[in-house]
Design goal:
CATH topology: Rossmann fold
CATH class: Alpha Beta
Number of domains: 1
Number of helices: 9
CATH architecture: 3-Layer(aba) Sandwich
Number of strands: 7
Shape: globular
Distance between the termini: 23 Å
CATH superfamily: Vaccinia Virus protein VP39
Largest sheet: 7 strands, mixed
Order of helices and strands: HHHEHEHEEHEHHHEE
Strand order of the largest sheet: 3-2-1-4-5-7-6
Strand content: 15-25%
Length: 243
């Protein structure tokens, strides 16, 4: 069982509620910090992850932990599906996404709603594909969340997960650890009103069961043909599985 890391030291509030509060607090600066802290590489990683679905040509996509919608917007450009529904536990992040949807005139093809990965408000066998970018670390119960994603996918539907992982080789491992543990929290504190958010980030990455461990959890949740593709020397990974 993965170690449970929460943003705040409050045992009376669930991880889901704490993560929602954290993202509500940082929603105004999230996009800026995301691109700034990754030096813009996160955009390249998103495109690589989305291209895992090119051959599948999904028409109906569920984007879990959609946040401000960046992954879904990129998917609209590359895959041109008929519809993407984005869900997130943070109303603050969804407010930013909604504003972008209106500004970019995408209301007909992209909509967002409050939702929890562990209790998805959709019928069985609904979606052709599901995506999660930098969100599975925040699931309260990883196996349960993945199992419910599996439930709402059609048979043969694909799940694509993009998530931070832990580099294993010198000197990338050492540089990555230093950057994530010292530089990221410092910059996060400068620009965000929630100091805990960017301390939680490296702690949650460290605790996340990446690589083969995550593939095993995907398999236990009902996914087949699971695959892990490391990016940038293992800083990030793309995981795929088929229902």
């Amino acid at each position: 069982m993965p170690q449970k890391i929460t943003p705040y030291r409050n045992n009376s509030v669930s991880k889901t509620e704490q993560v929602a509060t954290m993202f509500n607090n940082i929603s105004a600066t999230y996009d800026f910090l995301n691109h700034f802290l990754s030096l813009g590489i996160d955009i390249i990683w998103r495109k690589k992850a989305i291209k895992q679905l090119l051959n599948d040509k999904p028409k109906y996509i569920l984007d879990i932990a959609t946040g401000t919608g960046d992954f879904a917007f990129e998917a609209l450009k590359i895959l041109k599906p008929e519809k993407i529904i984005g869900i997130d536990i943070s109303a603050g992040m969804l407010a930013v996404a909604d504003k972008k949807i209106i500004e970019r005139h995408k209301s007909a093809v992209f909509e967002v709603q409050l939702g929890n990965s562990e209790t998805l408000a959709f019928a069985n066998n609904t979606f052709d594909a599901a995506t999660v970018a930098y969100g599975v670390r925040n699931f309260d119960n990883l196996l349960k969340g993945l199992a419910d994603i599996n439930r709402v996918l059609k048979t043969g539907g694909k799940l694509v997960v993009l998530e931070f992982s832990k580099p294993k080789f010198f000197p990338i491992k050492q540089l990555y650890t230093f950057y994530f543990k010292h530089i990221t929290p410092s910059i996060g504190k400068l620009f965000s009103k929630d100091k805990a958010a960017y301390t939680y980030l490296p702690a949650s990455v460290e605790a996340f069961p990446d690589g083969d461990n995550f593939l095993l959890i995907m398999q236990n949740a009902g996914f087949n043909n699971t695959k892990c593709t490391p990016l940038a020397f293992g800083i990030c990974s793309i995981y795929t599985g088929i229902k």
